[in-house]
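Researcher: I'd like a candidate sequence for this fold, 245 residues long. If you have to choose between options at a position, lean toward the conservative one.
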């Protein structure tokens, strides 16, 4: 009887660990480096976000600065609201968060103004030692990004959420950016990012000309690999189904 009881406890613990760490069957778990979710693992003081747990298992937890947790917003899920220059999340430096040879990023968001969803640079995010994610230009790596003179990839849309996913393939030298699973742009001739030891800023541009995000983020996922089309589609379908996109 005692053995059956211990076995039952072990099974429940495995289920719990799988749910907390991954929650869904995301592909390429070995390359999963960051997974922040507004609906789980957020510690607050009132509505203000103090910290967010990294569900990738890599320990890349985020600290909040004047960001707000807004519950039951998007398909019954919570979002993080960014309200201006001093409103952002920060993740301490981890080399595997650099876009050195391969990189994939997914974010469910809406915005009113701002030029940065995220950037791995304390300063100007468009240099050779940086990457950034922009609503207008998608993913930029080592000084190469989509030319938004042809039109912005995502228009301002507070309350109207989108999934932006971008894959940098250093072997091919390409960045492919998708909106709700549909290809929007491909950038060629992209070199791997030169290393930096800066933190990852979410919602903050860290540049004298401003451009911080005014908007909301529900979930952000980063891989240190260039996901295949099949792997990317699985992640996109998970996010679009979860948030009703």
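Model: Candidate sequence:
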């Amino acid at each position: 009887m005692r053995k059956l009881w211990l076995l039952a406890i072990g099974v429940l613990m495995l289920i719990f660990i799988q749910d907390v760490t991954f929650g869904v069957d995301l592909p390429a778990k070995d390359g999963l480096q960051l997974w922040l979710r507004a609906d789980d693992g957020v510690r607050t003081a009132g509505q203000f976000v103090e910290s967010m747990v990294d569900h990738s298992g890599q320990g890349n937890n985020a600290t909040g600065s004047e960001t707000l947790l807004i519950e039951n917003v998007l398909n019954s899920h919570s979002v993080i609201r960014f309200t201006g220059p001093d409103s952002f999340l920060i993740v301490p430096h981890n080399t595997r968060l650099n876009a050195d040879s391969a990189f994939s990023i997914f974010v469910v968001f809406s915005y009113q103004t701002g030029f940065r969803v995220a950037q791995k640079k304390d300063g100007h995010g468009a240099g050779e030692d940086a990457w950034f994610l922009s609503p207008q230009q998608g993913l930029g790596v080592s000084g190469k990004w989509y030319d938004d003179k042809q039109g912005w990839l995502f228009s301002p849309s507070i309350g109207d959420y989108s999934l932006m996913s971008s894959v940098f393939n250093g072997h091919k030298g390409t960045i492919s950016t998708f909106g709700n699973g549909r290809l929007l742009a491909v950038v060629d001739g992209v070199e791997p990012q030169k290393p930096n030891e800066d933190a990852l800023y979410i919602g903050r541009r860290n540049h004298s000309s401003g451009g911080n995000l005014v908007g909301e983020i529900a979930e952000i996922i980063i891989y240190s690999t260039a996901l295949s089309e099949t792997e990317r589609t699985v992640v996109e379908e998970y996010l679009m189904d979860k948030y009703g996109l």
